[in-house]
Amino acid sequence: MSFFSYFNRVLHGYPSGSKLLVLCSISGGGLIAYADAHSDAERLAVEHNQKEPQKKRVVVLGTGWAATSFLKDLDAKSYDVKVVSPRNYFAFTPLLPSVTCGTVEARSIVEPVRNIIKKRSGQIQFWEAECLKIDPADKKVFCRSSVDENLAGNDNFSLDYDYLVIAVGAQINTFNTPGVLEHCHFLKEVEDAQRIRRAVIDCFEKSVLPELTEEERKTNLQFVIVGGGPTGIEFAAELHDYIHEDLVKIYPLVKDLVKITVIQSGDHILNMFDERISSFAEKKFQRDGIEVLTGCRVVNVSDKFINMKIKSTGEDVSIPHGMVLWSTGVGTRPVVKNFMEQIGQGNRRILTTDEWLHVKGCEDVYALGDCATVDQRKIMEDISTIFKAADKDDSGTLTIEEFQDVVEDIIIRYPQVELYLKSMHFSQLTDLLKDSEGNDTEAVDIDGLKLALSHVDSQMKSLPATAQVASQQGAYLSRCFNLKSKGKHDPEGPRRFRGSGRHEFRPFRYRHLGQFAPLGGEQAAAELPGDWVSMGHSTQWLWYSVYASKQVSWRTRILVVSDWTRRFIFGRDSSRI
């Protein structure tokens, strides 16, 4: 070995091409090839890797609309990305009501997460696990595997992060109503839809058994939906079509005993839509025989009865049920609630972010989708600093020219300004500075500016907990991550009225692209951009087109369309599977 060590030292300074030494063995006539294992190229590669800066660690919690949209657009080559979620798939949740009645199969609306992330440039790691706790002080998340506990290995693990993206969604809000958790169905997950589908068939199968009284059959076939929002109304419509188009053909003896009831605490169903849509839906449900009870608050739910109070009279009413769907809004998940208490948001109902989706009071943490709300800053809170920034000559008044210098920044920073201008039919912000007779003013003082903008904040609205909002937030945040280095040196956002310089990015702004409400019988209602309202059969076909185009892959798009086609030709599947 000393012989080869000697030659290694001798040849160490020569180029790698000369380091091949062929020795002739005199006795055996064989050849021995020797080469230095560490070439110059290898040493340079090692030195380069040592100098290369380490990627920032991004941990994403969730695989819903917000998280998937973020991951699809993120430049994964620039970050070390890790995803944690108890679901190893993305679900197209707007079609969950269709899954409950077999109009669409569950497998048709889900796409494996690993199929989505493998298409990205750069490596993204995924673990099927639930986040149990977030430690913002140490920048760490603690998780537990969602896989079968009987398998070998430890279920618990932790991950360090430089940036954390919370997109865990929300849970059903029961408002602490007794009996809801024990006796009601929910519709948030694919598994929920599958359970409802089995429960509907169970109600019919039980009702056709011999020796049941007619009253017992009626009770089993009384379907109650609590909540008159889009999910509850779409389920009621799907259930009505399922029963009257398919189930009455195979359960003819009980077809006249079925009853569907919608309970709504407000005065109208679909009250977040245009009132024309709400009225259209109520009249259609009346024609279809779907009972709508408005102005009623559910007090408790038992295994056979649902008890409610009529708000107008205070009367207590009980109605029997075979199945109850609870669809009354969303609440905060325990892991998010615990996190909120750690960062000083424990007294809030929902996790709050600023307009850049950055969690207030916590560094390098972002929150998207149903688990958070954007706290839009009021313009009146900054009116003095806005005036000071615009008053360049410190005269105590603003000329129209001085005000125009900050108009663009104001409109970008405070989106409620643009909404207010539209509501007042003004074409530009300077129109607010005109006098009572509509004439231009030469200058305005601080009191005049306050008066002109005093009603702007009335247009502030909380964003709805919809897939559309979550998807846009995910796309927005991924763009911010992709341009982080550029934003530090060349910021694109509005000026900082409280401070110097400009914001790195423009604040998030939601663009409402419209919303649908399928009402059964191949009819739907839609609220489209520009205050357009569409209702009827043509709108249902528009709904088919939009929802097919919004699928995340060609696989799910083909499956969904084939399910719709199968339903038209053969009807829905009535098996319990």
UniProtKB/TrEMBL annotation:
GO molecular function terms noted in the UniProt entry: metal ion binding; NADH dehydrogenase (quinone) (non-electrogenic) activity
EC class of the enzyme, as a word: oxidoreductase
GO cellular component, one term: mitochondrial inner membrane
Keyword Thylakoid in record: no
Name of one Pfam family that matches: Pyr_redox_2
PROSITE patterns (UniProt xref): EF_HAND_1, EF_HAND_2
Topology in membrane: Peripheral membrane protein
Domain EF-hand: 378-413
Keywords of this entry: Calcium, FAD, Flavoprotein, Membrane, Metal-binding, Mitochondrion, Mitochondrion inner membrane, NAD, NADP, Oxidoreductase, Peroxisome, Transit peptide
E.C. number(s) listed in UniProt: 1.6.5.9
Cofactor dependence: FAD
Catalytic activity: a quinone + NADH + H(+) = a quinol + NAD(+); a ubiquinone + NADH + H(+) = a ubiquinol + NAD(+)
Subcellular location: Mitochondrion inner membrane; Peroxisome
SUPFAM superfamilies listed in its UniProt record: EF-hand (SSF47473), FAD/NAD(P)-binding domain (SSF51905)
Family, similarity comment: Belongs to the NADH dehydrogenase family.
Record-given protein name: External alternative NAD(P)H-ubiquinone oxidoreductase B1, mitochondrial
Organism: Abeliophyllum distichum
